[in-house]
Amino acid sequence: MKPIGFLLEILFCIYGMKLYATAQTVLKNYDYVVAPDGSGDFTSIQSAIEACPSFPDKQIRIFVKKGIYHEKLLIPAWNPHISLIGEDADSTIITYDDYFGKINKGRNSTFYTPTLSVQGNDFYAENITIKNTAGPVGQAIALAVEADRCTFVHVKIIGHQDALYVAGEQARQYFRDCTIEGTTDFIFGSATAVFDNCNLICKANSYITAASTPQYVAYGLVFMHCTIKALPQVHRVYLGRPWRKYAKTVFLNCEMGSFIDPAGWDNWRNPQNEQTVFYAEYHSTGAGARLAARVAWAKQLNDRQAQQYTLARIFTTQSSSWLPIEAP
Hints:
Number of strands: 24
Distance between the termini: 50 Å
Number of domains: 2
Helix content: 10-25%
CATH architecture of the largest domain: 3 Solenoid
Oligomer: single chain
CATH class of the largest domain: Mainly Beta
């Protein structure tokens, strides 16, 4: 038996060495590695961001090892083309706990609260959780994206009110296979943002979206093949209400639970908004897709209208076109 045991030890050793060599090869593909145990180039994500060159001509790749990073992060405008790649979405966690009352900077305090604030264009994130852990204490942003051509893949965005802020009148942002959790207006802003195959988790009786789309922008918040879920105690959720009067929000081929209010949409206590918003659905499914009971001022798209909602069309502006890239 000893020779067999010895042989197994050798095989396991060789296998372990191969795994280590593979891991080292993978890490060499990154510009910086962040690890809380000191095994990388930095122990904090913000330190890695600050080490990035300003206005680079290529994507700067930062690998973030598993761990809980209690940081308030900023990707500044002079640091475009940054990629944050987490080791594992469930265990690579960025967390902070700012909220409106804690900031106490007046009526605009909400916008000082993000755990991660992205202001640099061409940002890419994958396999990371971004949390605002302040709890149900008012406005508290987990992720604020105020930049153009930003992509998020398999990212978890967890908060309560105002969890995800998508901003920028000409900004284009893409979320694929993401999970977004919140309570009131937990996806809000003026950007053109597409949510593709995402899970939306409602944690309170409230509103999912609060778009503030500019009048001249063709697309606002677009949800494709998403699933809308809720915590057990939740029983009345609206798809959206207009933060500004030209809000545009569309759900295409999305599955909705029974907790979605039959009316679907709310006018934010202003009937005049009903004349200016664009709220629509196409092929909604599930117990919450009670389309005959929707408010009269919302729309049900036909096949021809729904065909206009392609990434190429949505992300083309008067000045440029863009398609989201895979991991750069």
